Amino acid sequence: MRRTANLLGLTLALALCTTTTAACGPFGASENGPVELSVRASVTDKSAMDAVVADFHRLHPDTHITVDYADADTLQHELPDDLRTGQGPDVFTVWPGSGNPASVKALEHDGLLENLSIRRFSLAMPDGVVPVTDVDGGTFAVPVTFSGIGAVFSMEALDTIEGTPPQTWTELLTLCDTARDHDKVLFALGNATPWVTQLITYALVATTVYADKPDFDQNMALGKETFAGSGWQTALRKYTEMEQRGCFNTDPLDTTYEESLEQVAEGRAVGVVQVASVLSELRAAAPGLTLRMAALPASDDPDATRMPGAVSAAYGLNPDTSHRAQALAFIDFLGSARGQNLYNRSGATLPAIPNASFTVDPAIREVAERQKAGTTVPFMDQRWPNSAVQQTHFAQIKALFEGTTDIDAALAALDEAYRKRT
Predict the structure, then answer these.
(1) 346 and 294 housed in the same domain
(2) What is the per-residue pLDDT across 4-15, written as a single tens digit (0 to 9) for each?
(3) Structural domain of residue 209, as residue ranges?
(4) Do 208 and 292 reside in the same domain of the chain?
(5) Is the preceding omega at residue 308 within 30 degrees of 0, hence cis?
(6) d(C-alpha 333, C-alpha 11), whole Å
(7) Side-chain half-sphere of 83: how many Cα atoms within 13 Å?
(8) In the chain, helix, strand, coil percent, each to 5?
(9) Residue 338 in 3-state DSSP?
(10) Closest listed residue to residue 273, CA positions, set 177, 201, 360, 336
(11) DSSP line for 117-144
(12) 87/170 same-domain check
């Protein structure tokens, strides 16, 4: 594990706990009743957060937690301003890395995140998690879930077409043909929903870029690499080849995320390239479905295949909270094995801080194996210097599908957005 300096800080903090309970707990209700703690979280994590809050309340009955749920766009646009104006919650969703206005690096830059380096969970975090939770050697978020991006297959649909999850690029294209021969598509694609446009690119880039250049992000930041001169070119060619080969449903730009899941649930599509959390929604839509997630191959060398796998949910602490002890206790609970297991038990995700007591969902066994083996790479936007790159990516994929741009122009636009830096 890491950061010897943090160990010294933790020792000092624990020593202070012997003389005061205000900063370290235990703590009780105020004279006016239970302490009211506010949390803001993504609506997609509602079931997970509800489970954690219920258990925390059993342990801390004198703290009442109210959770405000919102979608990603609302959180990213409103949360930073609320924190700046003193209207922010005590604990809140924060995006790992630097890809949007509510990301760890963006909020830390504006002094809107408490430094959590001396918390116990900080010392237990895997090295692969550190780049997206830390800024200049300090930890500013507690990572909670680890998720993957890959091909989620309906095993029933695969059996119908007598197929198996492809291990190579050639097998992938052949399986697209096989699905078509059975009046299905291999992958439902809902590019009418902007954030969906990025997922297949990410799944391919994990191999076409990072298998040979694991330090690509660092070299991009140093100006030694570009999108246009890298394996991003290969990934976008393969993305368009999949479209031309008939791997997707007709009119992806007129198909929403929700409609793409309907195609899988109804058996019209064999699978979908998505984040692991989609498993819960597919199971709710089709309870009898057997699902499996696998890396999307982008070469004919299975040993070179990588999968995007990274911290997906994380939480920060408002440095101006008036309920510091209670907020820290909740942050610590999120970082504990008990809290991590509760948060990840109801969804198809893994604890961001692994522990031996967690039972892995069989559908995401490959994600867990790759997490352990180190054959995952962070979600690409988590390492980008500004939110404009992701938005540009959305727009350029849409333009590629519309036929209003080409790959060279799309990558040039990404490079221009990256150079903005802020």
Answers:
(1) no
(2) 344 444 444 443
(3) 148-309+369-419
(4) yes
(5) no
(6) 19
(7) 30
(8) 45, 15, 35
(9) helix
(10) 201
(11) TTSHHHHH--TTTHHHHEETTEE--EE-
(12) no
* Between 2 and 197, residue with greater pLDDT: 197
Residue 217 lies in a domain: yes
- Would residue 303 count as lying in a domain? yes
Residue 49: count of CB within 10 angstroms of its CB: 24
Name the domain count of the chain: 2
Q: What is the pTM of this model?
A: 0.80
pLDDT per position as a tens digit, 308-351: 998 989 999 999 999 999 999 999 999 999 999 999 986 678 99
Instruction: Answer yes or no: is 185 within a domain.
Output: yes
- Of the candidates 297, 302, 333, the one whose C-alpha atom is nearest the C-alpha of residue 315 is 333
- Note whether 193 and 63 are same-domain residues: no
Tell me, yes or no, whether 300 and 198 share the same domain: yes
Whether 16 maps to a domain, the answer reads no
What CATH number does the domain containing 382 carry?
3.40.190.10
Are 318 and 206 found together in one domain? no
pLDDT at position 47, please?
Answer: 82
- CA dist 346 and 47 (Å) reads 7
**Structure tokens that stand for 198 in this block:** 């990025």
* Bridge pairing between strands 63-70 and 142-143: unpaired
CA 195 to chain centre: 12
Residue carrying structure tokens 């938005």: 391
Tell me whether residue 382 is exposed, middle or buried, using C-beta atoms within 10 angstroms of its C-beta: 0 to 12, 13 to 18, 19 or more: buried
Same domain, 82 and 131: yes
Beta carbons of 299 and 390 less than 8 angstroms apart: no
* 33/154 same-domain check: no
- Between residues 168 and 195, the one the model is more confident about: 168
Pair type for strands 376-377 and 307-311: parallel
Write down the pLDDT at residue 290.
Answer: 97
Pick from 326, 353, 380: which residue ends a domain?
A: 353
What type of residue is 314?
A
